[in-house]
Automatic annotation (TrEMBL):
Keywords: Kinase, Leucine-rich repeat, Membrane, Receptor, Repeat, Signal, Transferase, Transmembrane, Transmembrane helix. It comes from Sesamum angustifolium. This is LRR receptor-like serine/threonine-protein kinase RCH1. It is found in: Membrane. GO terms for molecular function: kinase activity.
Amino acid sequence: MPMPRHFLNAAPDFFHLHRHLHLSYFFLFFLNIFLSHSPITTTAANHEVLVLFSWLHSSSSSSPPPPFSTWNSQDSSPCKWSFVRCSSDEYVTEINIQSVHLALPFPSNLSSLSFLETLIISEANLTGAIPVDIGDCVSLKTIDVSSNSLIGDIPASIGKLKNLEELTLNSNQLTGKIPAELGSCTSLKSLVLFDNRLSGSIPTELGQLSGLEILRAGGNQDIEGKLPDEISNCQNLQVLGLAETKISGGLPSSLGKLKKLQVLSLYTTMLSGEIPREIGNCSELVELYLYENSLSGSLPGELGKLLKLEKLMLWQNNLVGSIPEEIGNCKNLVILDVSLNFLTGTIPESFGNLTNLQELMLSSNNVSGSIPAVLSNATSLIQLQVDSNQISGSIPPELGLLFQLQVFFAWDNKLEGSIPATLSGCKSLQALDLSRNSLTGSLPPSIFQLRNLTKLLLIFNDLSGSIPLEIGDCKSLFRLRLAGNKISGQIPREIGSLTNLSFLDLSNNHLSGVVPDEIGNCGELQMLDLAGNSLSGNLPSSVSYLSKLEVLDVSMNQFVGPIPGSFGELFSLSRLSLSSNSLSGPIPSTLGRCSRLQLLDLSRNQLFGSIPVQIFEIEALEIALNLSWNSLTGEIPPQVVALNKLSVLDLSHNKGSEGDLMSTFRNGEPCVHL
């Protein structure tokens, strides 16, 4: 049974002594073996052989991996061993083991390797704690034991390593606080501790590390407190990463002193307050990640002084005010994301200067005004997302000059006018969503010439006219939603050429005529919604070829004739709604083969005959079974009792007998209409 943690902390000397006594016996055992087989005298090199060899064999559960075949206890020196380098005097100066599965504890007695400068054992499944005597390895310049399974605290004794330049402990299971003693490692340039289980605050003593270039401690979700002002004393700092922690309070204005800072990563923390104007003094800044915080106030215009800035990520904060025109001076910007804030004002015209900009993300704000035509000058744009704002006016035809644009989202705004035919110039366009606006006019046929377009969503506008025959040319489409418009005419048979289409929603328009048989060629369709139109004729039996179909809704149309028995071949179907048509004939018993059906609505038709027993044997029916307002006859089969998961059962307004329906349901059962 392991000792309680408080006992371990209370008596460290006991366990330190016990461990070293054990290792001493172990060491003597190997020493006797070594001397009994070798005529040479024991030297410092021999000693290094024994220290390293005994560590490699410290686990009785497994043999050393094949790459260690050169490690021989009979050698007079380890200098020819794999993963080991030595000085000209044959003293070990470097151990470099990477991506080799060891499953060994952290090496002990390293302090006896007096000339060791580099210790790298990464991604090797090292276990146990980092021993305190690591602080006695006075020559160490580099320690990298990242991506292992180390536990316990970071030893404060590391603070004794005056020559240490790189300390890399990331991606382990280390706990406790960051030792304040690390502030004594006066040569330290890189301190990498991310993705552990560290807690406590950032020690102010780290501000003493004037040569520090990299500080990364993100992913330690229990690190808390404010970002200390003293960090600004690290005048050589290039990377400061504390993302995904509980760092709170405001960003200190003293960060502006970090003239060499290139990356500031403080996303997904508990930061609040305003972004200090002094951030504009960090003239070397390339990447600024402050998203998913509680930052407030307006965006400082001083951001425009960051001429080397490439990534500005401020999404999901509480930022207000307008977007500064000065940001247009950041001509190296590649990504600008200020979505999910409370920003107002207009999109700055100066953004037309951002010729390197690839992603402009302004979604979910209160931005108003129009989309500036000068955005067409930002010819590197790949993503333009301005959805969920108050943007008005028309879509500038000039956007068709954005040849590299792949995503254009402007849904949920107040856009007016027609969809520019020039958007067909966006040859790389993959997703276009202009839903929930007030767009008028017809669908430009040229849009369907976009060979890479996979998603076209235009729901809830005032679009009219017919669906262009050119739709069949857009064979890359797999999601097409035109619901909630005033589109008229027939569904063109060319739609059958869309063999990749998985989602087709043409509901709530003014479509008429028959559904073309070619719809059965859309073999990837999972959802087909034609509800709320004036479609007529028979339901095409070719729909039964759509083996992947999960939702079929053709309700509120003018379909006549029987329900095709072949619909029973739609084995993936979970929702089938044929209500409010003029369908006649009996309910096909083959529908009982649709074993995944959760909702079946055949109400408000002219169906007659008895209800097939097979319908009541569909165990998946949980949402609704609605057969009301037909001319069904006969008694309700006793199998209805099996539908005990059903929320709504409506058999009302038919000509059949109610039978013993009510007695088959008890408390908490479905809502039943007779």
